[in-house]
Amino acid sequence: MNQSSANVAGASSSAQPLLQVSDVAVHFGGIIALDGVSFDVQQGAVLGLIGPNGAGKTTLFNCLSRLYIPNSGDIRFAGQTILSTAPHKIADIGIGRTFQNLALFGTMSVLDNVMVGGHSQSSSDFLSNALRLPWVKTEEEGLADASWELIDYLDLMDVAYTPVADLPFGTQKRVELARALASKPKLLLLDEPAGGLNHDEVEDLGSLIKQIRDDRGITVLLVEHHMSLVMAVSDHVVAIDFGRKIGEGTPSEVQQNPEVIRAYLGTSD
Amino acid sequence: MVADVNTSSAGRRAIPENPANNLAIAGIRLPVWNKILIAILLVVAVIAPFFLEDFDVFQMTYALVFAMAILGLNLLTGFNGQFSLGHSAFFGIGAYTTAMMMAHWEVAFYWTIIPAGIVCLVAGFLFGLPALRLEGLYLALATFALATAMPQILKYHAWEDLTGGVQGLDLDKPESPFPDTLSDDQYLYFIVLVVAIILFICAWNLVRGRTGRAMIAIRDNPIAAQTMGVNNAVYKSLTFGVSALYTGIAGSMSAIIIQFVAPDSFTFLLAVTFLVGLVVGGVASIPGAIFGGFFVLLIPNISEAVADMTGRTDAKGLSWAVYGLFLIITVYVMPSGAAGLVRLLVGKLARRG
């Protein structure tokens, strides 16, 4: 259902991008983290956002999930500005994310982590939970069912009841992905998903990202250092440095962009 | 590691069973053990008062009251990660609500329990709102202020007519409707037992559902919880309210079984007593609260008996020292509370069944 509606929207979306970042600026005191960055993410695309350390990638991500408030500019999702949306409503409108340094619920099992991911997809409250009303049980079963589907999809069946803090790093990254998918996002923000993974794991991650887009019709915005991964999975790449956009285009265009090369390799002068 | 990713939802594997459920002690699986133990506990709880002196029945009743208060604190501190050194205040508000209704308006004691809970729910929620801006030690400090202020607020002369001022309020002892089969103390015990069972079942339902997951998620990682759509502010202040409701109902029950309230019964020391019960029973453990309730009631009595054995005149001070010794030994033997010790023992005894 999610997928078909996404495809229908995708067919008519050439006019309107799913995400529009326009002229976003963020200052921390005198430090300019983002200085008027603009780009669009088309429905159904994988967009890679690259840039050296400190370029402002994570700051931009935190604006998208409303952890930071931009000093100026606008961010529009499906045509609507998100800047007036409360941070906890971002999952509701269809934006899910993972974190650069993992932000899991350490004491909870994999299953419970994924079920918290489905929080925005459910509605029972204190009273109905305390009394365990009949519809609460139905809702819990539905939520558990959706969570198991994702646990299977990300090959986490064998560790489903293990507290996530006891799992190896690579596995925890997959738990974060499953948790983000549990909110049934239209747009998935991945903050350096390849960080800390070995060569084989990075390759698997690449095919997984494409698969998430293809199977579920989810648009992906990928922040990544790992250049070969970005170039392999992205349809479109945006490069930023010192808070400004320095290049944009297909992966091969961006790779040949002299500004991007200079940002990554430095200049002789 | 991600080798199996091309399994789509069509080729889905069966949901595995929780391996913990397959562990067994003496050939009986753990979930069955749980049921057996709960059944034994319930039977003991129902039969015991008929074999005990009235004073011992009163002690059991009071231990259950402590257990309810500790459970309330556990919802807040254990499950939601918010510190409170001020739960004596909510216990006091609950007790005074009941006492004032009974003493001034002659309301039957059982009609005062729910109002006492609701008053504390509102008080806790309102206190929880500004507390949203405080974390960890700072929240502990703010709640400490609440605990130290409460006895003075209750003594304040402007509402002395209502609260009884320094003297407090005396209440009539509820009488057993079946004097031939149940003594008054037994009657009150069963009332408290029923209320406690309801509160424990509700707490269990709460923490295993969507609300409980959100509470724990906020404790473990507030930013991630918010990103998943949890409204942290609402959950934290409502948890504060629900926690106060539990402790307030416990306070209400304490007024009913002691038939007396006075401001100095609700000092900071009482709040610390709850915290001791919480830690000794087990942080974020629901059955642990029962153990904690009995511990904080019985160990001071035992300490006093031990101190009395020395025959010294300054035995009162000595009993606190003995209490301290008991606490140190307990924390040393069970660093993660009674619940942690049980988990450890089960882990050692259990085999795959």
Beta-strand segment tally of chain B: 5
Strand order of the largest sheet of chain A: 6-7-8-3-9-10
- Tally of DSSP helical segments of chain A: 11
Q: How much strand content do the residues of chain B show?
A: under 5%
Order of helices and strands of chain A: HEEEHEEHEHHHHEHEHEEHH
Biggest sheet architecture of chain A: 6 strands, mixed
How would you concisely characterize the structure shown here?
The complex is a heterodimer of chains A (about 270) and B (about 350). Chain A has about 270 residues and is an alpha/beta fold.
How would you characterize the overall build of this protein?
The complex is a heterodimer of chains A (269) and B (353). Helices cover 40% and strands 22% of the residues of chain A. With 269 residues, chain A is an alpha/beta fold. Chain A has a six-stranded mixed β-sheet with strand order 6-7-8-3-9-10, sandwiched between helices. In chain A, strands 2-1-4-5 form a four-stranded antiparallel β-sheet, covered by helices on one side. In chain A, β4 and β5 (80-81) form a beta hairpin. In chain A, α4 runs parallel beside α7 (169-181), α6 crosses α7 (169-181) and α8 packs parallel to α9 (227-233). Chain B is mostly helical and 353 residues long. Chain B has one domain (25-352): Orthogonal Bundle (ABC transporter involved in vitamin B12 uptake, BtuC), CATH 1.10.3470. Chain B has 14 helices and five strands. Chain B has helices at 30-47, 54-79, 87-105, 113-131, 136-155, 160-163, 184-208, 210-220, 222-227, 232-258, 268-281, 288-309, 315-333, 337-349, and strands at residues 23-25, 28-29, 169-170, 260-261, 351-352. A three-stranded antiparallel β-sheet of chain B has the order 2-1-5. The radius of gyration of chain B is 22 Å and the shape is globular. Residues 1-10 of chain B have low confidence and may be disordered. Chains A and B meet through α3, α4, α5, α6 and α7 of A and α7, α8, α9 and α10 of B.
